[in-house]
UniProtKB/TrEMBL annotation:
<protein>
    <submittedName>
        <fullName>DegT/DnrJ/EryC1/StrS family aminotransferase</fullName>
    </submittedName>
</protein>
<dbReference type="InterPro" id="IPR000653">
    <property type="entry name" value="DegT/StrS_aminotransferase"/>
</dbReference>
<feature type="active site" description="Proton acceptor">
    <location>
        <position position="188"/>
    </location>
</feature>
<feature type="modified residue" description="N6-(pyridoxal phosphate)lysine">
    <location>
        <position position="188"/>
    </location>
</feature>
<dbReference type="GO" id="GO:0030170">
    <property type="term" value="F:pyridoxal phosphate binding"/>
</dbReference>
<keyword id="KW-0808">Transferase</keyword>
<dbReference type="Pfam" id="PF01041">
    <property type="entry name" value="DegT_DnrJ_EryC1"/>
</dbReference>
<dbReference type="InterPro" id="IPR015424">
    <property type="entry name" value="PyrdxlP-dep_Trfase"/>
</dbReference>
<dbReference type="InterPro" id="IPR015421">
    <property type="entry name" value="PyrdxlP-dep_Trfase_major"/>
</dbReference>
<dbReference type="InterPro" id="IPR015422">
    <property type="entry name" value="PyrdxlP-dep_Trfase_small"/>
</dbReference>
<keyword id="KW-0663">Pyridoxal phosphate</keyword>
<dbReference type="GO" id="GO:0000271">
    <property type="term" value="P:polysaccharide biosynthetic process"/>
</dbReference>
<comment type="similarity">
    <text>Belongs to the DegT/DnrJ/EryC1 family.</text>
</comment>
<dbReference type="GO" id="GO:0008483">
    <property type="term" value="F:transaminase activity"/>
</dbReference>
<keyword id="KW-0032">Aminotransferase</keyword>
């Protein structure tokens, strides 16, 4: 037996009847954009996230790009981390914002509030906090720190692409920042069958601006009033699929957490699996850390356990970024982690046998 890192087909097989029905009705509605499914999904997902407004877009990177434009970040500085897969960097480059990389907290691998606040300058427009691996960062710490500096103007954007449904101090991921972005890439905790994304926000005027930015800058049909608009939208088929999946999200997240708990209990201290079992962690990825990372991965592979590294290269070290404007603060924790982390299989449809195989491979090594 071998255990894959991801197996999204299984979720479709398990819910094929519901999903086929949803797709069929989206097709026969004859409205494949701007129909009832998109509208209903936006409302349902907003209610689930406990935010007043959700605007769907084409993918999670567009959600970041449009949020940064809405935050006025064009040509200005955006504080981010270098260990979160490059999505914020991509969005910054598209709009000509300057990424400012700050180090992570070695315990959580999330952005360190202390380092982020120290990197704020007069040019800072926004701060993107990524809830990496499904672990929710304490957004309040950033907000309080910015307020103490008199910098409430810095827009806080939560990147929730790995954290659908996470709950910290009674607040959902996506409800704490000024803006929040989601991706529904197929392997995310809530996944479409194709691309999808969304932006959550609190203020009606900001919601209207984001809606306009996602459609040519239109405030009404053929009347473009918001600068730097583009076209980015979710189609009815993806929205119908997401609507049918949303009621299962909490169960899936619980199953993911259980799997990570099994790994934590099995792994020796050398593995340093720091993920918590609180609802603030939705176990998007089961990431471990080990000094002999490459050796351990080879041994696990021999045992039939697929692994990966999220992510092997810091954003500022990517070949595409060389020579482009950026500010790189001391990143020694980010660098150390990128050499030692690896990811174990973790998805809700894993069988007990598969979980057990990973557990015994962890127990016999390390
Ligand atoms: C997946 C992901 C994105 C981008 O999502 P796409 O839909 O693939 O554009 C952004 N941020 C994070 C943290 C992600 O994991």
């Amino acid at each position: 037996m071998s255990v894959p890192l991801q197996a999204p087909l299984r979720q479709y097989q398990q819910f094929a009847t519901e999903i086929d029905t949803a797709v069929q009705s989206a097709l026969s509605s004859g409205r494949w954009l701007f129909g009832t499914s998109v509208d209903q999904f936006e409302k349902s997902f907003a209610a689930y996230c406990r935010v007043p407004f959700v605007i769907t877009v084409a993918n999670g990177t567009d959600a970041l790009e449009i949020s940064l434009i809405a935050a006025g970040a064009k040509g200005r500085e955006v504080i981010t981390v270098a260990n979160a897969g490059g999505y914020t960097t991509t969005a910054c480059r598209i709009i000509g914002a300057i990424p400012v990389y700050v180090d992570i907290d070695p315990e959580t691998l999330l952005m360190s509030p202390q380092h982020a606040l120290a990197a704020v300058t007069k040019d800072t427009a926004a701060l993107v906090v990524t809830h990496l691996y499904g672990r929710m960062a304490d957004v309040e710490a950033f907000r309080t720190g910015l307020a103490a500096m008199g910098r409430e103007d810095v827009v806080i954007i939560e990147d929730c692409a790995q954290a659908h449904g996470a709950l910290l101090n009674g607040k959902r991921a996506g409800s704490c920042g000024d803006l929040a972005t989601f991706s529904f890439y197929p392997t995310k905790n809530l996944g479409a069958m194709g691309d999808g994304g969304a932006i959550a926000c609190h203020a009606p005027d900001i919601a209207a601006k984001i809606r306009a930015l996602s459609q040519y800058g239109w405030s009404q049909r053929y009347c473009s009033t918001v600068a730097h608009g583009r076209n980015s939208r979710m189609d009815e088929i993806q929205a119908a699929i997401l609507l049918s999946k949303l009621p299962h999200l909490d169960d899936w997240n619980e199953r993911r957490r259980q799997i990570v708990q099994r790994y934590r209990a099995a792994a020796s201290a050398a593995f340093n699996c720091w993920n918590t079992d609180s609802p603030a962690f939705v176990a998007h990825l089961a990431v471990c850390r080990h000094r002999q990372r490459d050796h351990i991965r080879a041994v696990l592979s021999e045992a039939g356990v697929a692994t990966d590294v999220h992510y092997p290269t810091l954003d500022c070290d990517q070949p595409s970024q060389q020579g482009l404007p950026m500010v790189v603060h001391d990143l020694h924790e980010s660098r150390a982690a990128s050499r030692e982390i690896f990811t174990l299989p973790c998805f809700p449809e894993m069988t007990e046998d598969e979980v057990s195989l990973v557990v015994s491979a962890l127990q016999s090594n390390g």
